[in-house]
């Protein structure tokens, strides 16, 4: 079976890495990898950390790209590639423009599509934008739907989609477990990663921030920056913000925050370095989908700067709170987690509902038509949450 995996951004690469590793172990599968280069350096960072080889690199990114410009470059480049490779199946991940165009381009050529991370929904086409549209389109054209949770399976069932649905868990937990265990067991590696953050002071607790959503561009990012500036008045925290390379994020963030001494604006981190910072963080403030899934399994409280989420499981479990982009809501929620130990503990103690580290194996089994044991029980992850929240190894 010839499988062509198509992806192009940082989160897709992180979440596809464990799948590609599992595919490579199967003698019956010829696994080919096409990176579109929707992201350039942020994709390279992931390929390097996971030592992933690519067969086709389309290198399509342009600075400050538009959705239609990127989509048209993707269709133009992917169609002849799919014609040339003639895969038995195309595999895409999640909800990016690369995933949507990759799936539709395969569909147009009559190639079956499998969707990893199927069934996530907010029910609102404007949030996240354009991802809610992308993921719906990918699900419509896919005949194999790998839903991370029971809830995502239910979303697919409600839409009467014709594809076959498997509950697999989310592959991001596979990637996280391997990486966080590697960091926790290797003192030299950990020391090397920590050496990248010489500006962190031992008496201060880390507030780790990421943000990049298109629907937050403009007023949303202004509010986020105002809230961070206000929070920087606290002398007991270090705010660490690896800033996404999108110019619509870089510009307002650096204008508003670069002069504040305990706000550390840094370049996007490679995955191991970012996992290490998550391990060390006291609280995480983010609008990222992947971080919402990862942080709870490290026992970290997450405040999500969005009004709705397609990942409601951790909100229901009490490890994630939606705070939107309102300045007061963000500031109040962060202060509470720093000042109220009981509130912090109640967030930090919960388990992770997104996976058990075996999602990729289930996906490969399903691709090969083998029996797939469904992900139904609570994942077998135990947390060791230290009192200061600084050292939290994930124990598999
Ligand atoms: C994309 C995805 C989003 C995902 C996010 C992960 C779409 C529509 N959006 O959003 O779902 O959550 O990736 O980060 O698919 N850039 C660089 N170097 C890089 C990467 C980006 O310079 O390595 C800059 C470029 O100017 C690029 C811009 O960021 O044009 C935007 O990249 P793009 O992939 O279009 O959108 P994201 O906001 O990153
Ligand atoms: N991440 C990373 N380096 C960073 C910030 C995030 O490796 O500097 C990882 C993070 O652990 C998660 C993924 O990137 O796995 C999330 O990517 P992003 O927030 O860009 O996209 P989203 O998940 O929102 O689609």
Automatic annotation (TrEMBL):
The protein's name in its UniProt record: UDP-N-acetylglucosamine 2-epimerase (non-hydrolyzing)
Source organism, top-level taxon: Bacteria
Domain UDP-N-acetylglucosamine 2-epimerase: 25-367
Keyword Protease among UniProt keywords: no
GO MF term set: UDP-N-acetylglucosamine 2-epimerase activity
Family label: Belongs to the UDP-N-acetylglucosamine 2-epimerase family.
EC number: 5.1.3.14
Reactions that this protein is recorded to catalyse: UDP-N-acetyl-alpha-D-glucosamine = UDP-N-acetyl-alpha-D-mannosamine
Listed CDD domains: GTB_UDP-GlcNAc_2-Epimerase
Keywords: Isomerase
SUPFAM superfamilies named among the record's database cross-references: UDP-Glycosyltransferase/glycogen phosphorylase (SSF53756)
Broad enzyme group: isomerase
Record's keyword annotation contains Protease: no
Cross-referenced InterPro entries: UDP_GlcNAc_Epimerase_2_dom (IPR003331), WecB-like (IPR029767)
